[in-house]
């Protein structure tokens, strides 16, 4: 790898991380170092990235557990000219965090502290943190803005993101020259336009769209809608679904924003959503329309940790980053279905 400036991507074999690496390789001249321990991904992801980008000389990847600070620092000790970190690596299942809260607090917070410590010793000044709309909890006023007050978290996962934001803010405040961006994702869905890469959780998926596509492919026999008695227009939860490639593009713009000193303050915070709330039943209807496939689903009770409704005001990201989401819900569902068809060999 040459001495071009380098970006570290943690969790780079994961869903959003892999799509962001593709955008880094296609939109910028940076070299990329990806760190992942494959707890919810596989090394095969990099083959898919390279198939799309062809950038074999600009991507390196390491199997590192970020909770092991010594392993992290030793492995990257000789790597020079690192100018930024995009930190995705974290456990992300709300139901699992409810069942295993200590696992989530240990992994999500320890890994963050360790990667920031790496920034300190290697003098890396640009940091992008992967946060979540879950920090808003069951908030009363919608759509949420970056200034919306944060209530108590509804799950340990969401709480780790609230704590993570505070850690990044605190470190940034007391380390002049260090710049950070906190990106609160809403609900990333869909797959790359090539259908060569997309969401591929290990084990049973907990997110709605892979459950939908696997049901349509016959992998899941019957899917469950968790709750139909919420105070929403059709009784099901409302979410702001955002295409994963739109999310990835926002990271490129955020990196440009701080690396070129366009930022107004040392810590910047942006909502990444479309601004449109979609119910679970509306998402199901969209998929059935674009795929021509009737889904087998059963309506059951609410799931612990789930928020009733959440969607974004994304005006600040539009004005500051020049970021505008390109994809609507039907396009998101179609790309997810094409990816599932690619995986399942469905013609």
Please, could you describe this protein's structure?
The protein is α/β, with parallel strands linked by helices. Helices cover 39% and strands 17% of the residues. The protein has 11 helices and 13 strands. It has helices at residues 15-27, 44-53, 69-75, 94-99, 101-122, 156-173, 208-216, 244-259, 280-291, 315-321, 329-344; strands spanning 6-10, 31-36, 59-63, 82-87, 126-132, 179-185, 187-189, 223-226, 238-239, 241-243, 267-272, 278-279, 297-300. The strands form 4 sheets. It has a 7-stranded parallel β-sheet, sandwiched between helices. The protein has a two-stranded parallel ribbon with strand order 7-10. Strand 5, helix 6 and strand 6 form a beta-alpha-beta unit. Helix 1 (15-27) crosses helix 8, helix 5 packs parallel to helix 6 and helix 7 (208-216) crosses helix 11. The longest helix has 22 residues, at 101-122. The radius of gyration is 19 Å and the shape is globular. It starts with 5 loop residues before the first strand and ends with a helix.
């Amino acid at each position: 790898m040459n001495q071009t400036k380098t970006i570290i991507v943690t969790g780079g074999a994961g869903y959003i991380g892999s799509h962001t690496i593709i955008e880094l390789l296609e939109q910028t001249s940076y070299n990329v170092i990806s760190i992942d321990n494959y707890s919810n991904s596989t090394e095969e992801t990099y083959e898919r990235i390279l198939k799309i980008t062809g950038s074999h000389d600009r991507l390196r990847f390491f199997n590192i557990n970020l909770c092991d600070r010594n392993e992290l620092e030793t492995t990257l000790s000789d790597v020079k000219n690192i100018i930024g970190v995009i930190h995705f690596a974290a456990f992300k299942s709300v139901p699992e965090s409810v069942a295993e809260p200590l696992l989530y607090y240990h992994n999500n917070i320890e890994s963050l502290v360790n990667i920031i410590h790496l920034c300190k010793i290697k003098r890396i000044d640009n940091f992008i943190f992967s946060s979540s709309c879950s920090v808003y909890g069951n908030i009363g006023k919608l759509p949420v803005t970056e200034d919306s007050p944060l209530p108590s978290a509804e799950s340990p996962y969401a709480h780790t993101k609230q704590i993570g934001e505070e850690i990044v803010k605190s470190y940034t405040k007391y380390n002049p020259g260090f710049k950070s961006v906190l990106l609160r994702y809403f609900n990333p869905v869909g797959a790359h336009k090539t259908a060569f890469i997309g969401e591929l959780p290990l084990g049973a998926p907990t997110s709605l769209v892979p459950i939908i596509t696997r049901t349509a492919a016959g992998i899941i026999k019957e899917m469950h809608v968790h709750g139909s008695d919420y105070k929403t227009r059709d009784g099901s939860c409302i979410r702001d679904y955002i295409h994963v490639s739109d999310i990835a593009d926002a990271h490129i713009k955020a990196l440009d924003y701080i690396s070129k000193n366009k930022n107004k303050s040392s810590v910047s915070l942006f909502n990444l959503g479309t601004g449109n709330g979609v119910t679970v039943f509306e998402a199901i209807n969209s998929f059935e329309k674009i795929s021509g496939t009737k889904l087998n689903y059963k309506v059951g009770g609410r799931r612990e940790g789930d928020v009733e409704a959440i969607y974004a005001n994304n005006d600040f990201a539009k004005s500051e980053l020049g970021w505008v989401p390109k994809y609507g819900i039907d396009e998101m569902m179609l790309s997810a279905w094409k990816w599932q068809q690619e995986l399942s060999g469905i013609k």
